[in-house]
Write a structure and sequence with these properties.
The protein is an alpha/beta fold. The protein has one domain: Rossmann fold, CATH 3.40.50.10310. One of its GO terms (biological process) is riboflavin biosynthetic process.
């Protein structure tokens, strides 16, 4: 069930049965020469919808633009500042809490969002108390990073070994190929790719990682592998979501 394809009476009826909502969050940033710019949001959204189908849950609108300032030297990348993303998330959550949602389960596709999302949760709890939100003590937020699910990381090691890397990875590219098989890209990749430089400003990132990859070989990706990652993530996160709903 997608919030944006529902009517308000349908959402009102849903809230009689559940106070949980799944929120996909990703990024709009470069993913190397063959990775889609929307990879992180595409992956999060697909997995969120798979979990919702299993758990009879509602999915909120995907937050497509995240914290990706270090990718801005690559054309097409878009980023929010951490402070902006934090405020967007607090307003998003505050709106939903006003209607009776209490369990907010974020499925995240971008590592750069993690710190800001966690800070936004803390800010939301504070704002909800200050604004006297109904039952602020019952509000619960959870961040699930699909790419960190043990079944996913195990499969990535099995398929790609050290060539999984940490950005523009074959696992996430494979998942986008499964979701959007008509958008599979091909391009020559250099054999050598940097892996270990710290992340600072955008120009420095482009100099350190000239084609956008971080230790990865996305040419290894296939749609069939993407389906395996999808199924592994959906199975694990469905269990996690159901446990979260009954958390105290």
């Amino acid at each position: 069930m997608l919030l944006q394809r529902s009517t308000w009476p349908e959402v009102e009826a849903y809230l009689q049965q559940s106070d949980g909502i799944i929120i996909p969050i990703g990024s709009t940033e470069q993913h190397g020469p063959i990775g889609l710019i929307g990879t992180d949001a595409i992956c999060a959204e697909a997995i969120a919808q798979g979990v919702a189908d299993r758990c009879q849950a509602i999915v909120g609108p995907t937050i497509n633009v995240g914290m990706a300032l270090h990718h801005l030297a690559f054309p097409g990348s878009i980023s929010l500042r951490p402070s902006t993303l934090l405020q967007v998330l607090v307003d998003y959550l505050s709106s939903l809490a006003q209607h009776g949602f209490r369990h907010f389960y974020f499925i995240n596709g971008h590592g750069g969002n993690i710190a800001t999302v966690r800070a936004a949760f803390a800010e939301f709890y504070a704002v909800a108390s200050d604004r006297r939100c109904p039952e602020p003590d019952r509000l619960r937020c959870h961040l699930a990073n699909w790419f960190m699910v043990p079944a996913v990381t195990h499969l990535a090691r099995e398929l790609y070994g050290d060539e999984e890397g940490s950005h523009a990875t074959p696992s996430e590219v494979a998942l986008t190929q499964f979701v959007h098989p008509k958008s599979i890209k091909k391009a020559p990749l250099t054999a050598e790719v940097n892996t270990s430089h710290a992340i600072y400003a955008a120009a420095d990132f482009r100099r350190r990682y000239p084609d956008g990859r971080m230790g990865s070989n996305p040419a290894l990706a296939t749609p069939e592998q993407g389906q395996r990652f999808y199924e592994a993530a959906v199975a694990a996160l469905s269990q996690s979501y159901e446990s979260f709903l009954v958390s105290e």
